[in-house]
Design a protein that fits this description.
Elements: H1 10-25
Length: 46
């Protein structure tokens, strides 16, 4: 496995805010967007 540095971007901060709100409210959230914008890479590994 490659050692990669996670870069916190504006999109990551938005996703974190969204995820925290979903967790707080106990709801389900859906992230969508164009292909190739990094949806799979927004959350760093646990």
């Amino acid at each position: 496995m490659m050692n990669q540095t996670f870069v916190v971007t504006k999109e990551h901060r938005r996703f974190t805010e969204f995820a925290n709100a979903v967790r707080k409210e106990g709801t389900i959230g859906i992230c969508h967007g164009d292909a190739g914008v990094g949806k799979n890479n927004l959350r760093p590994p646990l």
